[in-house]
Amino acid sequence: MELSGGEILIQFLKDEGVEYVFGYPGGAVLHIYDAIYGQEDVKHILVRHEQAATHAADGYARATGKPGVVLVTSGPGATNAVTGIATAHMDSIPMVIITGQVHASSIGSDAFQEVDSIGITRPCVKHNFLVKDINKLAETLKKAFYIATTGRPGPVVVDIPKDITDPKVKVPYEYPKSVSLRSYNPVVKGHPMQVKRAVDLITTAKRPMIYSGGGVVLSGAHKELTEFTRMLGFPITNTLMGLGAYPGQDKQFLGMLGMHGTYEANMAMHECDVLIAVGARFDDRVTGKIEQFCPTAKIIHIDIDPSSIAKTVKVDIPIVGDVKNVLQDLLTLLKETKERPDATALHKWWEQIERWRGADCLAYDRRSTLIKPQYVIEKLYEATHGEAYVTSDVGQHQMWAAQFYKFETPNHWINSGGLGTMGFGLPAAMGVKLGFPDATVACVTGEASIQMCIQELSTCMQYRLPIKIVNLNNRYLGMVRQWQEFFYEGRYSMSYMDALPDFVKLAEAYGHVGIRCESPSDVEPALKEALAQKDRLVFLDFITDQTENVYPMIEAGKGHHEMHLSPERELA
Amino acid sequence: MRHIISLLLENESGALSRVAGLFSARGYNIEALTVAPTEDESLSRMTIVTNGSSEILEQIIKQLNKLVDVVKLMELTEGAHIERELALIKLDASGKNREEFKRLADIFRAGIVDVTTSSYVVELTGTVEKIDAFLDAIDKKFIIEVARSGVTGMARGERALRL
Ligand SMILES: Cc1cc2nc3c(=O)[nH]c(=O)nc-3n(C[C@H](O)[C@H](O)[C@H](O)COP(=O)(O)OP(=O)(O)OC[C@H]3O[C@@H](n4cnc5c(N)ncnc54)[C@H](O)[C@@H]3O)c2cc1C
Ligand SMILES: Cc1ncc(C[n+]2csc(CCOP(=O)(O)OP(=O)(O)O)c2C)c(N)n1
Ligand SMILES: [Mg+2]
């Protein structure tokens, strides 16, 4: 089969099983768009800004586990995509981003819409390729998908100069079924010796703790994690990225840990004697002050990326491998051995944990006449039976969603943790909705974040994506305001946003439904109404208590035992 | 601690900047970096001299291994090894120091590879310390320019960096 470069790209995407491409056309990719024209196999979603294309592909990837695919033009198309690429990179999300480039012969001449896309994206991709030879196009694309989806996943950019896609130049095409890269071979199987050592340590634990993260979601190892945790009867906490990998309502689950984690999770971290870290990267929002991190614990760390191990925290038993494999190996060994941790000690440990749990650290004022943001999330949880896909933006609303929506299954909580990118929520929800057209998809956002990609309301209209937007409108850059209240003596520098749009009218202007909600008693009916409108995007604008803060909170650089609960309930 | 890392990397256009970018982005030191093609034209060999604690070295090695273009890597300073640097040193040899510089070059087993009535170019190969010692032995005002290659090296004996 003889095809042009543009046709090869589209044929390849078909052969690779790609369902959707999120993109935006421009000069350097016109040949490719011509190849897209009139075919139905690879569906192209036309966003309104390239940042949204990357977030949408990212949301699709996080929910489905399949790589997200993006197509943008050279220059401004590529630079607009960078925020989304960096977002995916920080959270290890598999994505392939095709960027158009000027003609190979013009590269380096400051040609029209030329930027060094390879150079600009290098620090925020897993890898990138500049295609220089049409005969290598298919092979390069295959490598890109392979690298993006294996090992520790991540975004891969393929930069394609315009002449490579010239419709007049046709070459033979065959789908490359396999790839081999001599310099890239991720280790997926844990070292048996290390696995054995881990079991030996686990079975001697008196105050054990499991700390699991995004790696479990990425690996699809939630079943193994749940079996492992239940078999041992150990307490477990999840990072922000790991929520849903262990059932959120289970007795053994202590909630999220870290800066805005629960009291019981953080205290159990501080006091444990054996910590089992599973696909988590000891981020500073999680560890707090390194010197005070798990001061009495021996640490086992399972991670597919050797560079995640001992990066910030020294560990005693590192295990490099895919968590799914390693957990299976651990389970096999645990089933063989008769050894079990001391039941009396474990029982005492649980008693201590229950006392911490008794602090009810997520309590908030339920009698307020103002809408409490926590209440909205609780009601959203109830109204969706805990089964919705929930995307979020960045700020206080993100933390409340993480704390109050008890995710039972993985891949349902879709948020930007590592980069913390405002503007992520809405486009990510579009990607999720395309991946799961029949599922309820809610986007929990704030009045500031939503405005960073508000233009996507138009895309939602074009493709009929009935997302439910839950805007926790506190008229503040709430998270910024909270820090200014705590650490800058209430000097609210630039955290109040005047002149907000009327979100109801705005939603209507885009052809959607808008509902404003100003009193607690309206919250539930509004949510029900929104969910009942199955085929419409509904923008719910909840006017919430302006000064509500996220608790508990550990100040940056403090230890896990130095938490603040809400002011009325400050710990001794 | 000073460490020398040698690596084989794909002879691709972007490979060098990936390594350099990694060091600057993560705040690792580079004291010297040399790179050249090898007998296998698909590979380049790079030698990096860096400084840092053993924890930092561990991260550097892991991060380098993570780069898709890095095929193989060895920390030379982990075992017996040879390290060499080449320096070209142009000296003001117009005055009464002419003889003195000649003698000094002999002592260091250096060659004088360019001679004019007013200057010498001395070629010196050795460890970094040896070249430093040579330069220290000469009054700065007679040094016109210095070009140092940066360190390259190889493990002694059986240990070898090859595919
Ligand atoms: C406003 C704000 C507040 C935040 N507050 C908190 C907070 O209170 N608590 C909190 O936890 N986070 C918080 N975060 C998020 C935080 O910044 C980090 O993104 C998060 O803690 C990282 O989660 P993780 O450790 O699970 O790692 P991820 O970023 O999910 O990384 C996954 C790890 O698993 C590994 N991995 C990937 N695939 C596999 C596999 N197949 N097998 C084995 N290992 C694998 C990777 O190598 C990596 O080390 C906050 C973020 C924001 C924006
Ligand atoms: C693109 C971007 N710019 C700035 C920030 C810093 N930041 C973090 S949270 C936040 C405020 C978000 O406000 P809003 O969306 O209204 O959410 P709230 O905290 O009020 O719930 C800001 C500005 C960011 N995370 N992302
Ligand atoms: Mg706000």
Can you offer a commentary on this structure?
The complex is a heterodimer of chains A (about 575) and B (about 160). With about 575 residues, chain A is α/β, with parallel strands linked by helices. Chain A is built from 20 helices and 20 strands. In chain A, helix 3 packs parallel to helix 4 (about 75-90), helix 7 (about 190-200) packs across helix 12 (about 325-335) and helix 10 runs antiparallel to helix 13. The longest helix of chain A is centred in the first third of the chain and has 15 residues, at about 50-65. In chain B, strand 2 and strand 3 (about 45-50) form a beta hairpin. In chain B, the strands form two sheets. In chain B, strands 5, 6, 7, 8 and 9 form a five-stranded antiparallel beta sheet that branches. Chain B has a four-stranded antiparallel beta sheet with strand order 2-3-1-4, with helices on one face. With about 160 residues, chain B is of the alpha+beta class. Chain B is elongated and about 55 Å long. Chain B is about 25% helix and about 40% strand. The interface of A and B includes residues 118, 147, 182 and 305 of A. The structure holds flavin-adenine dinucleotide, thiamine diphosphate (TPP) and magnesium ion. Thiamine diphosphate binds near residues 447 and 479 of chain A.
Give the termini separation of chain A: 75 Å
* Largest interface in this structure: A-B, 18 and 21 residues
Bound small molecules, which ones? flavin-adenine dinucleotide, thiamine diphosphate, magnesium ion
Gross morphology of chain B is elongated
Main sheet summary of chain A: 6 strands, parallel
Task: Quickly count the helices of chain B.
Answer: 4
Query: What percent strand of chain B?
Result: 35-45%
Low-confidence stretches of chain A: none
CA-based shape of chain A: globular
Q: From the alpha carbons, calculate the radius of gyration of chain A and give it in angstroms.
A: 24 Å
Radius of gyration of chain B: 18 Å
Low-confidence stretches of chain B: none
Summed over residues and divided by their number, the pLDDT of chain B gives a mean of 96
- What's the story with the biggest beta sheet of chain B? 5 strands, antiparallel
- Structural category of chain B is alpha+beta
Q: Structural class of the secondary structure composition of chain A? A: alpha/beta
